[in-house]
Predict the 3D structure of the following.
Amino acid sequence: MKTSLFLATLGAAAILSGSAMAGTLDDVKARGKLNCGVSSGTAGFSAPDAKGVWQGFDVAICRAVAAAVLGDPMKVDFVPTTGQTRFTALASGEIDVLSRATTWTFSRDTDLKLTFAGTNFYDGQAFMVKKELGVTSAANLNGATICIQSGTTTELNLAEYFRLNKMTYEPVPVDSSAEGERQYQAGACDVYTSDGSNLASVRASFKDPADHIILPEVISKEPLGPIVRQGDEQWADIVHWTQNALFAAEELGVTKANADQIAASTENPEIKRLLGKDGNLGKMIGLDADWAKRAIMAGGNYGEIYDANLGTETPIKLARGMNAQWTKGGMIYSQPFR
């Protein structure tokens, strides 16, 4: 009896697993739209423009996936989420992929049963203060009131940093970056803490950005990237390798403008595999041969996406740093396309 029950349970699990593996891809194709979870409005990462069209780094990642899967980067519905609602939205099936500032941690990967599809932005937690306070180091923040987003890794990082440095603080919880910005500007807190990239985004929106400084201390490692539900290996592979296609394209010199031309003329074997001119890599993940080329042409390679949304020529003014290609001292590279 116990053996039969065990086999029946094992069989049911296998059926559910097999169903899950193909589920999201089939759902997205049947719906004709990708449902993408993003932040509720963070300039440079995800925010609607004056015409209501979503723009930003995290937005571009989802547009690349939509182009790969559906053939059209505009076939995406963007679902704003907060630090407290993002995982529920993913687990419930409201969204197919979560593309917002979410840190890859042990407990999220295992206990929450999420699958991180790779890191596309290396960040760290920092502090922003008004220049008029005269603060030049996080060591001077003892007794400060600090705005902090609820349901994020920044809460634990902050508590640990202050405890280790024998300082105290008063937290001012906020639900989103937008609320944090409002509370900070209204004087509800002396300090706003978040990922350094988010602070740069918030500061860029101020009337006088130069009146605010981001302190030099970086108190955590924050590897950020898109997430899918655990148990859907095919979908995880699609998101992971679409992102890798953007990394590889930058390294190999394939851009939004030249992808078609290079696909028709290249003799480079890895570019040929990447762009579907050699092998059957697309078939292995349930897509056609041109999936990666479409993803690249949606918004450009990784460098083009970064520069257009976050780079030094944008209001955010973030240098590549750790997010440079590995050939230029950074941490961005793709596993081989072979």
